[in-house]
Structure formats: structure tokens, C-alpha cells
Amino acid sequence: MTSLFEYAPAPESRSIVDIRPSYGLFVDGEFTDGTGTPLKTVNPATEEVLSEVATGSDADVDRAVRAARRAFVKVWGPMRPADRGKYLFRIARLLQERAREFAVLETLDNGKPIRESRDVDVPLAAAHFFYHAGWADKLEHAGLGPAPRPLGVAGQVIPWNFPLLMLAWKIAPALATGNTVVLKPAETTPLTALLFAEICQQADLPPGVVNIVTGAGETGRAVISHPDVDKVAFTGSTEVGRAIARAVAGTEKRLTLELGGKAANIVFDDAPIDQAVEGIVRGIFFNQGHVCCAGSRLLVQESVHDDVVAALQRRIGTLRVGDPMDKNTDLGAINSAEQLARIRELTAFGETEGATCWQPDGDLPDRGFWFKPTVFTDVSPAHRIARDEVFGPVLSVLTFRTPDEAVAKANNTTYGLSAGIWSEKGSRILKVTDQLRAGVVWANTFNEFDPTSPFGGYKQSGYGREGGRQGLAAYLRSDS
Amino acid sequence: MTHVLDPNALADPSGGTGAPPDPFADVTRSNDAFRAFLHGLPGVDQVGAEARAKVLGTRSIKTTAKAWAIDTAISMVDLTTLEGADTPGKVRSLAAKARRPDPTDPACPAVAAVCVYGDLAGVAKEALAGTGINVAAVATAFPSGRASREVKLADVRDAVANGADEIDMVIDRGAFLTGRYLDVFEEIVAVKEACGPAHLKVILETGELVTLDAVRRASWLAMLAGGDFIKTSTGKVSPAATLPVCLVMLEAVRDFRAATGRQVGVKPAGGIRTTKDAVKHLVLINETVGADWLSPDWFRFGASSLLNDLLLQRQKLRTGHYSGPDHVSVD
């Protein structure tokens, strides 16, 4: 059924953002050359090279850590907490003022729809700075001891799925608690972090408080293993997280890890079906499924399975896949050729394992990295697609008969980052929530984020919390 | 007016020799049974419905899509005057505008209907003779609906006798809110019968039903009773038409068609004043129930001031610049 109502393309203009042909590292308040071989960052929707970005070598990372240490000892550590708060407020306001610029750049570099970078990533990033700015002078009231003190220099490594938002999750609490930062953005999405460096300059943030060292895995390794780094924070894959845990083990460094997930989204037979379908879509197709807490395992009560799957397929048929810069696009490009290959590999497993694969009609763009929204039905907990994190727009549908079975299946994973429950019955929601081994449980919603709410995982989804009062603890020394 | 658009939606056990039986005939055997059925409909999560409506409200409709949307919205307008001060002159003037909304552009479509009080239906009918534009009349002790059933039915018969093609009735919200669902149902059935050939639009007055669960139940109730359209509001109660309410009503007509094969129209009324609002509703239809409802046969806007904004936006698309309110007629 084709609609008479075809939306004309509504592309956001890219003229608001000025992408330089090359970028250096941001160390000690200034852009400097990197000594490693520069890397190219591409627009995943078109494969166009956007810019060339410096790579930080061990020596560059050392320079950045020394700058951060200097700033910590001389300026940021001794500064009155209320003044630190002022800087954070200033950064938050600048992010809001330049929101469109950040949204456009994020979409160009990452491939996510402008609707999401504009309405989710950038506003939430600003919200994180606002929230933590408020804490800067109230830390003794956070319930973390009478006089909590900063740790020192934080080495932070962030992923490519929410480049600016993850930066905000890392930098805002670190600065609010009085630490200084050396941050390494993901190699495929460094541009918004470099634009953020300009915000730091614009806000007159003292040099060295925030340092941004771009590069790939080697650079990240140098950051986390630098002997003068007091705290390591990482968001990314479980595999890399494990390597980091090994590298940090036996040192004095504090460590928090936000790793993978394979979240269960549980739909009971009394769920508000239309909203549950929206929540399922939001759970797995938001940000092309590049979300560690994505609701990638749909657990549906058998009695409503057919209705839910039919409604879901009808709804997915209305998803608009294509140019991320079009304001009407719902599903953008896969971030890299490498990730696309991984998604293809795992979905191929699904079919060989005997699950039924469904994709909507429609064509994908010729250039760029694309994958259709995909639903696997007839999935068993023994299938790889029910166990491995696909990190793409691929949903596995499983069924259950009783609440106990739902809980058992939901918890039957090596991860434990998030879960969702759909039911009109409040008592059931509370009971099941209590039994789920997941850091976040959403009830009748999914993928809602708020800086006041702690976020983090169980099991191989990592340890530590980000956001809320709990998130502050990871950056503070509470012993007296 | 039964349009069986989905032949697979309903099996015909009579072997194709007769009309398919009503699969819901049994649910109205008693008030308790009806209550159990209506309360067994899937719930609506208010927060989720509002969020969905909000996201659809951010669709960016430009150029060709916008031109199509504006013309479609104009053709869906029930141009309305429901004032105590209405006169034959006012109605005739509205009828003239309905036929030719933009005198400067003959390509501008006419509206779907003119909506008046029952006593003025005759004036409207005469003024619209030969245009194909329908006369809609509000009846059943509009807007409160507080009168005896006999009075309400007489009101309907009178409006139909005066020439109304469409009757906009109000449900008995008091009966609905006290749980006397069968009374509401029977009244709609009686009104439908009194309508004769006229189409029946059932006004739920969603602003008084308050919850979206109640909106879904009232929608099903009105459709089961034979309503041809379900309509949000009288326009006399605030809030009137809202996007989340319209979303829930669209879901109801979609599910009802899947269950019975019968398609029912939707009419938001009251509070829709701008082109932007109208386009948001069209997007809502497009992404909730699809193109089958994107026509004046199945979707209407109950509005008085909306038309002028649509005309101004239409002129802007045509000429490239905005003109002032004096470039469109006052009524």
C-alpha cells in the first residue's frame, strides 16, 4: 500500500558547520600536531572523506597527561567549586547555542539521523553539563562522605555510537568533581569532540583541564595505561573492556566500564500494544541499533505474539531509511564498513540457525553503509542471534508463557545493562523489575535517558555507574 | 455505508450468499458483557501515546508534499459555524466560501461540508445546491446532549428533513462515565436509524472523557453502534481535538476495520487553527493508518478559522511570499 503522501526531501543544510581539511590534537588548551600517522574520517552515508585527523602517539599522550596533571595541581584542583560550576554552566550554554552545528556535524560524521542528533544527542549532552554543573559546589551533600576529593587525571575512552553524548557523560562528571581529563574519541567519529575542544577555548576553560587526543586503539591503550592517570573510564565493547581491565589490574587506577548488552524487552499480554510497538521500535532501531542498552531481544507472551509481530511489521514498514541529513529520516547509516560486515555476519548466522528473517520492502541508497531494519522470529535462546550483541538494527523475537519464564529468559545472558517491561499492571512491573539482573529497567518505555538517573551494568556489561549521585562516586575519593 | 476494503479481514461463513455476521453482535447482549468487552480492549499508555504524537508532529513537510497536504486539508474541511447568533445570511456567506474558498484561484479545491445547527440546514442546503458539498448538521441537543431521547431523535429527524446529509451527534457522556455503556450504544443505534440516508458522525467529546483508555472505549462503542465517523469534540469544551486523542481514534478505526471489514472515518474538531496543525494530523493518518484514510470520505477537520490559514499558506506556496489576512475573505 503506497501512500499518496510522499514527503518531499527536507535536508538540513550543512553550511552551518565548517569542517577543516585537517585537525590536530587538543592538548593544554591548544591544537597541536600529532606525531602518529593521521587517519581519515568519512561520512558513512556517502563514504565521502570529511577530514584528516591527527593520531596521538605515546609521546603525545604523555604530553596530554602532563598538561592535565599540571592543570589539576595548579588550577582546577585548587579552584573554588562554585567557580568550576560556572565553567560547566558556560560549556552547557555554549553547547545549546551551537546545538545545530553540533547536530549537523554529528550526523555527518556518525551517520545517525539529524532528527536524533538534533532532538536527543545534543540536548542530552547539554543537560549532562547543566546537571553536573549544579553538583560542582554541593559534593559534600552527595552522600559520598563529608569531604570528597577528586582523584586527579582521568583517562577516558569513548565509542562511536554517541560521540558527543558519551563525551558529555565522561567529561561533565570528571570536571564537576575537580578532575582533569585526557579523552580519546573513537577513530571513526572524532569530529564533534574536536568541535567541543573549540567550546572549551570559547569558555576560557583553563588550559590542560580538557585534553582531546584522537587516534585508534593504540592511542586508547596509551591513555589508559599511562602511569600518571588516576582514573580510567571506558565505554565500548566487552572485548576491549576486558583488555582494559587486565591492563589496569594491579595498579592504583580506578576503573569504570560501560560495555555491551543484549537487553530483553518483555511484552506481557496485558501491555498497551500500540505503545509497546513504539517502544520496541525505539528500543532496537534508535540510532540504527548502535546502542549498548538496545532492546535487541524481544520477549513476547505467546498469547499476543502474532498480534505484536504483525503490528511491529506494519510499523517498521513506515520507518524511513536513508539520507541522515533529511529531517524525516528515521534510520540512518551504519557507522562503518567494518560494523556493517559484523552485522551481516551475525544476521547470516540467524538464518543458518533456523530463525525466520523479515525485512520491509524498499531500496537502500547505493553508496554508504546501510542495513535494513530486520526482525528475526522463531528465535530460541540457544541461537547466536539471541546471545551475541549485534549492535545493529536487528531484533530477535522470542516467546514466553509465564512471568517466571520471562524472567528466566531475560536473565539468561552474559550481559545485564538494561531491560524493558510492557504491562498495564503496576504490581507485575514492580515484581518483575526486582527479579531482572539489569542496571536499568524501563517500564512502558525504552531508551529514555536522563542525567539524574544512574546508568550501568551487571555481569559482562561492565561495572560502575554514570549519571546521578552514583555517577559522581566514580570520580571522587571518599576516604577522609 | 459499509465499505469492505479488506476482504481477508473477515471470513464469510454463509458461503458468500449473504452479509457476513457481525462478529461483535454478542458483546452488546447486556451492559455487563459490553463493559467486559470495552474494558478488555488493549490499554493506552498515555505517556507513550503523547510521545508518539509529538514525534510525528516534527515531520518536516515541504514543497510538493506541503502543496498536496494543503489542498487535501482544504478538501477535508467541514466549514463550521455554531453560534447562537447564526443567521441565514451568515450561513449563505459561509456556503459561498465553501464553494470557492479562494476567489483568486479557481484551482483551489472546495471544502467537504458546511456544518450548521439543524434549523439552518435548509438554508445551507439551498445555498449549496448542485455543488456536491454536503450539509452537516449538529443534532441530539448539541453540544451538551442533555435532553430526553425523544427530543434528541426529533432533533435529528428535523435536521434530516431540512436537508442535512450528515448528522453530528453527541454521546451521552454522563451515561458513559457512569458505566451505562449499553444506554449510550442504544442511543447511537436509534440516532443512526433516525438519520435514514444521512451519514452519522458520533462526537465523543474527548475533553470530558479525559483518559485515552476512555477514548478508545468510546471509539469502539460508537463504531459498533453504527457510526460512520467518530469525531473528537463539539468545539465547546476544552481541550478539544489533540494529536494524542486523534492517534488513539485512528488506531481504533484501523483495528475495527481489521476486525470487521468496515471502515469508519475520523473527524477532529475544535482547536485546529493552523496549517501546521492540519499537516500534523495528515502525517498522523499517513503513519498510523495509511493512505486509505487520506481523503474527505474518511477524514474531516471540524473548523472555522483553519481554512483561512490554509488559504494563506497556499497563496504563499503559489506566489512565494506571504500576504496579509485581507487577502482571504472573513467568511
From TrEMBL, chain A:
Membrane spanning stretches: none
Pfam family of the protein (one): Aldedh
Keyword terms of this UniProt record: Oxidoreductase
PROSITE patterns attached to this UniProt entry: ALDEHYDE_DEHYDR_GLU
Catalytic residues (positions): 258
Residue stretches making up the Aldehyde dehydrogenase domain: 33-477
InterPro entries: Ald_DH/histidinol_DH (IPR016161), Ald_DH_C (IPR016163), Ald_DH_CS_GLU (IPR029510), Ald_DH_N (IPR016162), Aldehyde_DH_dom (IPR015590)
GO-annotated molecular function: oxidoreductase activity, acting on the aldehyde or oxo group of donors, NAD or NADP as acceptor
Family per record: Belongs to the aldehyde dehydrogenase family.
Protein name: Acyl-CoA reductase-like NAD-dependent aldehyde dehydrogenase
Phylogenetic classification of the source organism: Bacteria, Bacillati, Actinomycetota, Actinomycetes, Geodermatophilales
UniProtKB/TrEMBL annotation, chain B:
Lyase recorded as keyword: yes
Pathway stated in the Swiss-Prot or TrEMBL entry: Carbohydrate degradation; 2-deoxy-D-ribose 1-phosphate degradation; D-glyceraldehyde 3-phosphate and acetaldehyde from 2-deoxy-alpha-D-ribose 1-phosphate: step 2/2
EC number in record: 4.1.2.4
Ranges where the record places region Disordered: 1-26
Pfam families per the UniProt record, alphabetical: DeoC (PF01791)
First-tier enzyme category under EC: lyase
GO molecular function term, any single one: deoxyribose-phosphate aldolase activity
Entries under InterPro entries matching the protein: Aldolase_TIM, DeoC, DeoC/FbaB/LacD_aldolase
Entry annotated with the keyword Lyase: yes
UniProt GO BP: carbohydrate catabolic process; deoxyribonucleotide catabolic process
Catalytic activity, as annotated: 2-deoxy-D-ribose 5-phosphate = D-glyceraldehyde 3-phosphate + acetaldehyde
Protein family: Belongs to the DeoC/FbaB aldolase family. DeoC type 2 subfamily.
Protein name per UniProt: Deoxyribose-phosphate aldolase
Organism: Modestobacter marinus
Source taxonomy: Bacteria, Bacillati, Actinomycetota, Actinomycetes, Geodermatophilales
